[in-house]
Design a protein that fits this description.
The protein is mainly β. The chain folds into three domains: about 120 residues, P-loop containing nucleotide triphosphate hydrolases (Rossmann fold, 3-Layer(aba) Sandwich), CATH 3.40.50.300; about 80 residues, Translation factors (Elongation Factor Tu (Ef-tu), domain 3, Beta Barrel); about 80 residues, Translation factors (Elongation Factor Tu (Ef-tu), domain 3, Beta Barrel). About 15% of the residues lie in helices and about 45% in strands. It has five helices and 20 strands. It has a seven-stranded mixed sheet, with helices on both faces. It has a six-stranded antiparallel β-barrel with strand order 8-9-13-11-10-14. Strand 2 and strand 3 form a beta hairpin. The chain is globular and about 55 Å long. The chain starts with a strand and ends with a strand.
């Protein structure tokens, strides 16, 4: 099994989980444990924009939160994690029972460090409800003699060499070869961080947040979301309010066009590839900045 986790704070914990790999706005730590491969995402950018934190939480299937320092950074990550329906693993360094009661969180586990790896690979992830293949792209670049290489995470299905896939632009591309953990592989399933050598597309035609899918996924600007906001944020979302919108590896400014009891309609400044069911954060300037999450109900151009 392959699993992607987020470690929002405490780089020492990320180093404990795995060996440091590539590093930009997100640093990846990789670990083979028993027959499983763990990829840990640590938001390493220090630009106060919080995008890397949002991306790592959205892309992960589990969140591992260190309680070594129960400070402002911990609080922001904790509030954001409470907005997602994902398993939260908390270290037992400090008592945070009061915080857990305050957000009425149930899908969590307090784990000693020596038990973390076993808890991370425990097979309690929800079954996929969709067919087909999807790879979320976070970077692309040219390699001499190979062509365009895209780095990303397999989020649905299994990708194999010679697969024909649809890029967010509408182009059809072919997967020449696949690497994972610096080794050539013949297939990559959900939770695998991959490097894909691609044919029929240039690296300048791809961007962070793009998708490779087995069926076309169009770019959209108008979205309807089921949403929930954290009570800790004390934010009233109003029509015409503007926020930053982060979904998977993509981001855009947005304006709220309609507010319902549990539903928001948004218009994005920049169109992005969207599928029904994708999760997202609304981001504001005040702490906690990741104050609301949503799940896409519908999307139109």
């Amino acid at each position: 099994m392959n699993i992607v986790i987020a470690i929002p704070v405490d780089e020492n914990l990320a180093s404990f989980i795995g060996k440091k790999g590539s590093s930009e706005s997100i640093t990846y730590y990789n670990r083979k444990f028993e027959n499983d491969i763990i990829v840990a995402m640590f938001p390493s950018q220090d630009d106060e924009k919080v995008h890397a934190l949002a991306e790592s939480l959205l892309m992960a299937s589990k969140i591992v939160l260190s309680t070594v320092n129960v400070d402002k950074k911990f609080g922001e990550a904790f509030v954001a994690a409470s907005l997602l329906n994902k398993k939260l693993l908390l270290t037992d360094d400090n008592d945070v029972s009061g915080l857990l009661k305050g957000v009425h969180m149930s899908n969590y586990q307090i784990v000693p460090r020596e038990g973390l790896l076993a808890s991370i690979i425990s097979h309690d992830a929800p079954a996929q409800s969709r067919e087909g293949v999807r790879v979320d792209i976070d970077k692309s670049f040219p390699v001499r003699g190979i062509g365009t290489v895209a780095l990303g995470v397999v989020t649905r299905g299994v990708v194999r060499p010679h697969d024909k896939m649809c890029h967010s632009s509408g182009k059809q591309v072919m997967v020449r070869s696949i690497q994972s953990q610096d080794e050539d592989v013949e297939s990559a399933d959900v939770g695998t961080r991959v490097g894909l050598s691609l044919k029929d597309i240039g690296d300048d035609e791809m961007g962070k947040g793009d998708l490779l899918t087995s069926a076309p996924v169009r770019r959209s600007k108008k979205l309807v979301l089921d949403y929930k906001a954290s009570p800790a944020a004390k934010e009233t979302i109003l029509e015409s309010s503007t926020y930053r919108f982060v979904m998977n590896f993509a981001r855009s400014d947005c304006v709220v066009t309609k507010v319902g009891p549990q539903e928001l309609e948004l218009e994005l400044a920049s169109a992005m590839p969207v599928e029904v069911g994708d999760e997202a954060f609304l981001v504001r300037q005040e702490m906690p900045r990741l104050f609301a999450s949503g799940k896409v109900k519908s999307a139109t151009a």
